[in-house]
Design a protein that fits this description.
With about 300 residues, this protein is an alpha+beta fold. About 20% of the residues lie in helices and about 30% in strands.
Length: about 300
């Protein structure tokens, strides 16, 4: 009698030793690009100065007597460092068994948790809220949406992104700071980036390739200068509250509390497992938030 596969109880399953991790946690634009500095304490401070341009003439009479000048002293700005942890735990059995994904289960788990740590850092840099912390409660750092106050605008719910809106956003930055510090990057949900890519006013296409259609905008030059358009998964994208954030990249830094840069710490065993954690403590330095613009209220797209 012929032997058929469906009769053969000795067959083994087919299981590829390949794992494709398609998690969105790899999108860490800020934590990958921002410069770093060192914080000496959990309350991290720095000085800033922004002198307003004159709004009237300031002529002086010949031989005028001394007049007390306006104070141009710098002011302090601050943020709070926040600890971020990702815990690692692998049982002795898991490390011993034959797994489809070859190699050490502990090494694999560490890679996963390191990715989670970076994603947590990125989310905090965008949407973190400042909290001083107390016994049993966590400190929190203010992310971009927490530090931008000079150019913070709530548009009418459902406002459509347009060329005029984009021009206004960039001009908000231009009006507030010197021309050399105008915002150069727009962080936005993918739907807003698609909307910007669909702008056709005064657009010139410099690519003559005939077998490819280009529908992408990496840079948009407004009347106030050049803006890099960066889609970001952590910018708020909810119906009627979708936001955009324009920043000058060089005016923001990640400040790590001294000796608290991201690292792996082994923890003592309390049973038949290996334990550890990835940990870091950082805050966001905003060296000139007036150059930034945060607008909310746009229609959700995509």
């Amino acid at each position: 009698m012929a032997l058929f596969t469906y009769d053969d109880g000795s067959r083994r399953e087919s299981l590829l030793s390949i794992l494709r991790d398609v998690s969105p946690n790899a999108d860490t634009w800020l934590s990958t690009r921002l410069d770093t500095s060192t914080a000496q304490n959990t309350l991290h401070e720095w000085t800033v100065r922004r002198i307003a341009r004159p709004t009237s003439t300031n002529f002086g009479a010949e031989g005028a007597q001394f007049s007390q000048p306006a104070g141009d002293a710098p002011t302090r700005s601050n943020n709070i460092t926040a600890a971020i942890q990702q815990w690692v735990s692998v049982s002795g059995t898991e490390e011993a068994v034959d797994r489809a994904t070859k190699g050490s289960a502990l090494d694999d788990e560490k890679k996963v948790k390191l990715g989670r740590l970076k994603a947590d850092m990125e989310f905090a840099l965008v949407r973190g809220a400042k909290a001083s912390g107390a016994s049993g409660t966590a400190r929190g750092l203010a992310g971009l949406i927490g530090v931008i106050s000079t150019n913070l605008t709530a548009r009418n719910s459902g406002t459509s992104m347009s060329t005029t809106e984009l021009e206004d956003i960039h001009q908000n930055s231009w009006d507030a700071v010197g021309s050399q510090f105008v915002a150069d990057t727009l962080l936005c949900p993918m739907g807003i980036k698609r909307k910007i890519a669909g702008f056709t006013t005064r657009i010139t296409n410099f690519n003559s390739n005939t077998d490819t259609i280009y529908a992408n905008v990496l840079n948009y030059e407004t009347s106030s200068g050049m803006l890099k358009i960066v889609p970001h998964k952590d910018v708020i994208n909810t119906a009627g509250s979708t936001a955009v954030i324009a920043i000058r990249e060089e005016l923001y830094r990640m400040a790590f509390l001294q000796n608290r840069e991201p690292k792996y710490v082994e923890l003592g065993r309390t049973g038949d497992d290996v334990r550890g954690m990835y940990v870091t403590e950082l805050t966001l330095e905003s060296l000139g938030e007036a150059a930034s613009v945060h607008r909310t209220g746009y229609a959700q797209l995509g």
